[in-house]
Amino acid sequence: MQERAKKTRIRILEAAVKLFSAQGFHGATIDEIAELAEVNKQRIYAYFGSKSQLFEAALLEVFERIELFSHDTLAHAEKHPEKITAIVMEGFLKVHKAHPDLWRLLAWANLEGSLCTEALNQARRQENERLRILYEQAVSDNLLRPIPFETWLFTLLAVTYFRFSNELTLVHTMNGISSMQKMERKLTADLNTLFTTENATE
Amino acid sequence: MQERAKKTRIRILEAAVKLFSAQGFHGATIDEIAELAEVNKQRIYAYFGSKSQLFEAALLEVFERIELFSHDTLAHAEKHPEKITAIVMEGFLKVHKAHPDLWRLLAWANLEGSLCTEALNQARRQENERLRILYEQAVSDNLLRPIPFETWLFTLLAVTYFRFSNELTLVHTMNGISSMQKMERKLTADLNTLFTTENATE
DNA sequence: AAATTAAAAACAAACGGTTGGTTTGTTTTT
DNA sequence: AAAAACAAACCAACCGTTTGTTTTTAATTT
Questions:
Q1: Residue B196's beta-bridge partner residues?
Q2: pLDDT for B100-146, tens place per residue?
Q3: Would you say B15 and B24 are in contact if contact means Cβ atoms under 8 Å apart?
Q4: Which residues contact A37 (CB under 8 A, 6 or more apart)?
Q5: Is B23 in Cβ contact with A168 (below 8 Å)?
Q6: Is 0.85 surpassed by the pTM of this model?
Q7: Å between A181 CA and nearest CA of chain B
Q8: What percent of the residues of chain B are helix, what percent strand, and what percent coil, each to the nearest 5?
Q9: In chain A, how long is the greatest CA-to-CA distance?
Q10: What digits encode the pLDDT tens for the residues B68-95?
Q11: Contacts with A139 from chain B: Cβ below 8 Å
């Protein structure tokens, strides 16, 4: 594959990520993707085979590009293990805000039943293990309550995911809270105290 | 509108719920819905106007039909306020399992940016308030940790939603846990201890 | 260094099928 | 007689995909 071909391949992929993320598999059209990528329609079939193969390629692309736990987050959590919940939450929220494509594509994939989910988690597993070590150390240091790592991670992932995937609904539900930002701060703080032992903050 | 017309209207609505929930707005087709409802295509436009209007009608239908906190759940929680977290979680999971249409339709609506979300929450608000009273009583009785009601409810809703909307992904992520049911039980138990004060269980 | 050439890359245009939406006319039920 | 439901066709638009042609690139030959 020549240099020029690689570039157009990437242009297609970027357009696909953008449009699939915005409108889903059935909502986005090959014509739109081709137009946004400034590429002839047929190139898409030449490089990706079919619409569904393009979707999976786009999904994998996003997953490999984005690291859920940034170096900063892990380093920060290492220094202040008693605040690990707040730090990781803030990290999650930041990543999701910076890459809305990520959770949207994942949401579409889950609803539409994409098949490549195994490959996705392979990429994520290694990241998880680094965090697990930090977390379990904090638990045995009696900084955190003795809740299993899986439950803790699941809760944080769930809260973050829910905050974004139900934004439309939440605006009305959580009345009394004026802004989304306020809600995030409140949630982060509350969850942090929830998972922390009482003597840790002394 | 005659009796017969009402029935066909309902048949259309039920078919719409089923197919929109399964395949989303763009994925489902009017022809399929008409076929499943055993109704002439034209009747759909006679009663609902357009595809998008049918979608919103289907969404509202599901929301009004399903009560998120059943009478059983609330009664049970009233008797055992120290187990309110586990009880409500189990209730949520049960409702979601019994009505997969609910969260799927909501997920599609959120992704596709439906506009009728305001109406949805109006229906939910009253239910929330009954639960709030129970919860806040349990907090002031020192059975639960002093976490705001909103954060508590948000967490439980998020965990439940996440469990269903990311089922495909989770099967691989949470390795070491053999079945989904085991995971649910673990999560429920852990969250319950998390939100309960230590003296409550004594 | 310039010309040639074959493959790779990109294009334009059309294909057959399906979509949402609508209409026209007819039959059935109330 | 009016309301409800039907059958069937229509439309323009769009879907994913394919075919045939032109342009660009890079290696080869002169």
A1: B144
A2: 888 899 899 889 877 666 667 676 777 888 899 999 999 999 999 99
A3: no
A4: A8, A11, A12, A14, A15, A16
A5: no
A6: yes
A7: 14
A8: 80, 0, 20
A9: 65
A10: 888 899 999 999 999 999 999 999 999 9
A11: none
